[in-house]
Structure formats: C-alpha cells, structure tokens
Amino acid sequence: MARNKFDIDESLETPFNIRHFRRALVYIKRQKKPMIIAFVLSALSAGIALSAPLIMQHVVDVTIPAKNAQALIGWSLLMLATIVVSVILATIRSRMMTRVGQDIIFDIRSDLFKHLQELPFQYYDDRPQGKILIRVVNYVNSVSDVLSNGIINLILEILNLLFIAIFMFAVDVKLSFVILGGLPVFLGIILLIKTKQRRAWQAVSNKSSNLNAYTQESISGIRVTQIFNREAHNEGTFSRLSTNYRNAWMRTMYLNFLIPFSVDNLATIVTTSLYFVGLLALGPEEVTFGVILAMSSYAARFWQPILNISNLYNSFINAVAYLERIFETLDEPVTVNDAPNARELPPIKGKVTFEDVTFAYDPGLNILENLSFDVKAGESIALVGPTGAGKTTVVNLISRFYNITGGKIRIDGHDLSEIKLKSLRSQMGIMLQDSFIFSGTIMDNIRYGRLDATDEEVIAAAKTVCADDFIREFEKGYMTEVNERGSKLSQGQRQLISFARTLLANPRILILDEATSSIDAQTERLLQKGLNELLKGRTSFIIAHRLSTVKNCDKIMYVSDKGIAESGSHNELIMRRGRYYKLYSAQKMQA
Ligand SMILES: Nc1ncnc2c1ncn2[C@@H]1O[C@H](COP(=O)(O)OP(=O)(O)OP(=O)(O)O)[C@@H](O)[C@H]1O
Q1: Are 534 and 510 in contact (CB under 8 A)?
Q2: Atom of ligand 1 nearest to the CA of 389
Q3: Which stretches make up the ABC transmembrane type-1 domain (predicted)?
C-alpha cells in the first residue's frame, strides 16, 4: 500500500463527513459541565466589561458636570471593580478551558493508544512508525483548542453577532440591510476557497507526517547511516521533505489570509455604501447624521465577530484534517480479534496441528499453501530452510498474529479462530532474534511477562538461563537501568535477558526465532543447559540457521516451496540425503 513509505502521502480512506464531527462531539460532551460553566463565566465577563462604557458615559454626562467628587470616587471604584471581576472571571475560564482541552485530548489519546495496542501486525507492517506516532502525539494536540475553546467561542461570537444585529435593526432597518449586503459576498468567497483550504490542510498533515516518518526512521537507523556515510544524502532527503512541508504550510497560510483580507475589504465597502445610501440615496430627511454615525459604528462591530468566526472556521478546517486522520486510525479494523462466540483456551498440553493451511500477507500471493503437520505435546521442532521460505510465518500463525487464508490451526484440538487471543498468547512464549528491551531496570524487563513474579523468581529464571553472572557484574545488578532497545547491553546479553523473561512467563508452547543467533558458541554451550531447562516439558518450535543448534530436536521440518519439503529427525534426514542433508553438509564444510 502506498502509505508505507515516508515520502508517499497517505490517501484518505474515510473522507471526513458529519459522522466524524459527531464522534468529536462524544469527547466534547464528556466535558459538558465545565464547558457550560466556562460559557457562563465568559458571558458574565463580557457583560461586565460592556458596562464600563455606560459608567464612563454617566460620569462624563452627569457626575463631572455636577462636580460631585464623592460620586466620582464611587464610580471610579465601581469601574475598577468591573475590571478586576472581569479579569478574574476570564482567568478562571481560561484555566478551566485549558483543563477541558487537555481532558479531551487525554481521552482521545487514550482511545488511540488502546486501539493501537490491539491492531494486528499487518497494520504495523504497512506503515512507518513515525506516521503512527505523529497521530498520537501531534495531531491530537492540534485539535485540543478547537474542540474546547473553539466551540465556546463560536457560540459567544454568534450571540455577539445576534445582539449587534438586534441593536442595528433597532436603529435603522434599511441601513441594516446595507450592512448585511456584504454577507452573501463573504459566504461566496468562503464557498469558493472551502475545498482548496481543506485540501491544503490535508497536504500539511500529510507532509508533516512524511517528515516525522523520515526523522523517526533516520534516528532508528542512525548507526547504519554513519557506517555507510549517508549523512549528506539523508540531509538532502530531509531538506526535500522539509521544503514540501514548508510549501504546504505556505499555501494554507495564503488561503487563510484571504479570509481576513476579504472581511477587511468588505467592511470598508459596506461602510462606504452605508454613507452613500444613507446620505445620497435616502437623504438627510430620512437619515440623521447621528444615525449614520451609529450605523457605521455597528457596521465595524458587526464585521468583527464575523472575522472571529472566520478565524474559528479556519482552525476548524485545520482541525478536521487532523481529526480525520485520528478517526481513521481509531476506525482501523482489528482484523485479528476474538470471534463473537470465542471461548477461553483451557490450560493446554501443547499439541499443534496444521490442517491444509494457506496464508498470504498480500491477497493472491500465497506464502504457504495447504500446509499440514502434527506436533505432539512436548515435542521440539526445528524449522530450517532457505531465507524467505516462510519459517517465521509458520510460527507467527501459531500465535495467530495473522489470520490464515484457508485451512485450520488447532492447539490441543481447539481451532485457533474460535478461542480468545489472550488465553492463547498467555500460554505461548516467543523469543525473537531482536529481543526488545524496554526502558527500566533489568528486573522490570525480566518480569515483563509476569508482573506478579517475586524478585527471587526473577533471579532464579536468570540463573537458569546463565544470565545471572553478567547481571551481577553491573554495579547495580538487577536494578541496573537499561534504556529503550537496550543499547547499553550487548546483543547476547539482551538475548539472555529475554530468555529469562520467557522462562519466567512459563509458557506451554515456546517459539525461538533465531533466538540464539547473537550468542557466541561458547555462551551458547553454557546456555544449552538453561535452554534444555526452558524446553523441558514444552512444545517448542526453533528456527535456526546454525543447524548445530537444532540437531537434537525431535523433528526437523525443512520449509520450502510454500510448505514442508522434508521432515524427520536429524539422522533420518541425513540418511535421506535430500535438501537438509545438502544444507547440513555445506555448513559442516564451512565450519
Ligand atoms: N509482513 C509481511 N508482508 C508481506 N510479505 C511478508 C511479510 N513478512 C514476510 N513476508 C514475505 O513472506 C515470505 C516468508 O517470510 P518469512 O519471514 O516467513 O521467511 P523466513 O523463512 O523466516 O526467512 P528468514 O530465514 O530470512 O528469516 C518472504 O518472501 C517475505 O518476503
């Protein structure tokens, strides 16, 4: 799919529609109470602020001519009080709304993260991580203000507009229509640029997503970049993506600028028309100078909320571009999930059966076809074969990380598609070549799969897999802080920690995908004892290119040509003198 590259724009699969806005309202509605309070505070604050000119008028017309010093002090204090109260109310409102904005994005972000945790491997196979990250962090931030303050300000501005219109019509109906005459022109301009604006903001969201994806990829691959001296080339790519982002941003700004520009000019044209119609067309008998003065003041006031509403509209269009991405992620189907009538998988013995299994990552491109095999509980199975033959795919299917296209996979006779994923995966242990280390202590990392394990149990697991010695060599031992991906640890040390993690979780079925490939032969011999412990009584699937590691497995399956080409014990396969024999002989010659 086009989106899985940093410089390819994501296409929108679900265009924005009113349904999305209704979904945004779900988050806003949860904040109904503070939002109503904030609205009342705003209205009060604005109302109190409006009383200042009235006090001023009274002081100028009555108090000062009467030379009443005492009343003057009273009015001054009242004026001061209105300012203080209005500032206090505005401050409380702004604090409340900051909180509301943060609560809304907290909710959206939590939902996004929860959903991302459930999305299958396939989703992550298809996208650069940076494009996922930007949705959870940046896009959600960008919509906070519109979803909180935006709504309240919109209501206030509409009310403001209504009040001004009422006053305006009360003074002069005909001239009011002259002022309103600018509105259709303004709406026409909005309609004209609406689609362009939406596309422009979508482009900004796309370009920022691309930039983010590339930055993230570059940071992850910095070691390879430096090894191959690709810095200058990468800077070029970054600069290109950055320029694309800047251009997209400039275009939105240009379109956005059209709105205040139109409002300013329309306000001037309307005011000029007002003078023209008032003085020339209607004549001094019908319209006094005072009315013209009042109406031109209303004309200026009338266009201010329109300008504010247009700015809000701009922010809304901007937020929509982000909201549609956020909802697109939330709508991403969890294709690997529990069937409606899924059952708990009871504690298993570990028998694994493949019945005519067919699987394709991309429709029509089968990686496995009609694959059938039977593994008894407690057996150790080695999967060997050429690169890209489908060994990892086979083990990924046992954990149901992907849905199969045809056939059935059973564990102890239970069809995987009919059982609850959690109950399946909690009884499986999977160790990959690149064992992931999370930020935290070594103790936390080993305990990752069984949070209730005691320190003693953690240490016992580490001892079994020969990890205890090197852990104790660190100054803080098990409490040593390791950073994300474990870059403070050697590959082998990371493997040993993940062995301990898996052992502690005590799975019934164990999968080791090239899990010992980063461990030197001597450590591997040491580890063999621990590994034997780990394998004891469990069904295990071991993928290894180093055949010496798997010689002793109960059964070796040679994966090739979309299925199992050969299967048997090491001795049987050697005697058969087929593909396994060739591979084994070639490795022996190299050794
Ligand atoms: N996420 C994916 N999306 C599409 N195709 C994939 C994906 N993962 C693997 N493949 C393809 O499926 C085939 C089998 O891959 P798999 O990783 O199972 O091979 P393997 O036998 O484990 O290889 P290796 O020994 O190199 O680890 C390969 O042709 C690979 O290109």
Answers
A1: yes
A2: 21
A3: 36-318
Query: What are the chain's domains?
Result: 9-331 (1.20.1560.10), 345-427+549-591 (3.40.50.300)
Contact of 116 with 151, CB cutoff 8 Å? no
Of all atoms in ligand 1, which is nearest to the CA of residue 514?
27
3-class state of residue 434 by DSSP: coil
Query: pTM value?
Result: 0.74
All residues at 6 or more sequence positions from 222 whose CB lies less than 8 Å from its CB, including other chains: none
Let me know the angle formed at the C-alpha of 274 by 272 and 276, rounded to the nearest 5 degrees: 70
Give ligand 1 pocket residues (Cβ under 6 A): 125, 361-362, 367, 387-393
Nearest one of 416, 412, 414 to 401, comparing CA atoms:
416
Q: Using one digit for the tens of pLDDT, what is the confidence trace for 30-46? A: 988 988 898 888 888 77
Q: Measuring from atom 7 of ligand 1, which residue has the nearest CA?
A: 361
Q: What is the DSSP pairing of strand 428-431 with strand 563-568?
A: unpaired
Q: What one-letter code names the amino acid at 311?
A: N
Neighbours of 538 (CB within 10 A): 20
**Distance of CA 361 from the midpoint of ligand 1 (Å):** 9
Ligand 1, atom 16, lies closest to the CA of 390
Q: Are 102 and 144 in contact (CB under 8 A)?
A: yes
Tell the residue nearest (CA) to atom 11 of ligand 1: 388
Angstrom distances, CA of residue 334 to CA of 12, 19, 418, 587: 18, 20, 16, 43
ipTM: 0.96
Tokens coding 226: 């430096």
Pick the closest to residue 573 from 563, 558, 588, 590 (CA basis).
Answer: 558
Give kind and range of the element (H or E) at residue 219: helix 182-220
Q: Whose CA is nearest to atom 31 of ligand 1?
A: 388
Q: How far is residue 22 from each of residues 29, 147, 321, measured CA to CA in Å?
A: 10, 12, 15
Report how far ligand 1's centroid is from the alpha carbon of 374 (Å). Answer: 22
For the cut 50, the answer to whether the pLDDT of residue 297 exceeds it is: yes
CA distances to 157, 365, 370, 374, 415 from 407, rounded to whole Å, are 62, 16, 7, 14, 10
The DSSP annotation for 525-555 comes to: HHHHHHHHHHHTTSEEEEE-SSGGGTTTSSE
| Dist. CA 393 → ligand 1 center (Å) | 6
Residue whose entry in the numeric block shows the structure tokens 């303050």: 149
Place of tokens 């060739």: 582
The residue to mutate among 4, 359, 361, having the most atoms of ligand 1 within 8 angstroms of its beta carbon, is: 361
| pLDDT over 70 (residue 529) | no
Of 122, 127, 335, 391, the residue with max ligand 1 atoms within 8 A of its CB, to mutate for a pocket test, comes to 391
Average pLDDT on 309-321 reads 82
Distance 233 CA to ligand 1 centre (A): 29
How many whole angstroms separate alpha carbon 543 and alpha carbon 394?
A: 10
The tokens describing 582, both together, are 């060739």
CA distance 286 to 288: 7
Shortest CA distance to 318 belongs to which of 256, 262, 246? 256
